[in-house]
Write a structure and sequence with these properties.
Layout: E1 3-5, E2 10-11, E3 27-28
Antiparallel strand pairs: 1-2, 1-3
Length: about 55
């Protein structure tokens, strides 16, 4: 599953990209995906982590 920024274009899996984001934007990660989030110099990051329920098989 590709990593997608809400209100942005899809990102190619396995590719390292830097994306500047604005307040209110988010990231969707699949089970095996990861991301590093860093604040710009002089800025802060306030994470909001939402975990959805596992869908029964």
């Amino acid at each position: 599953m590709p990593l997608r920024l809400i209100h942005a274009e899809p990102i190619t899996p396995g590719k390292i990209d830097r994306h500047d984001v604005a307040r209110g934007m988010g990231v969707h990660l699949g089970p095996a995906e990861r991301a590093t989030i860093r604040a710009a110099p002089g800025a802060t990051v306030e994470p909001f982590h939402l975990v959805g329920p596992q869908v029964p098989k």
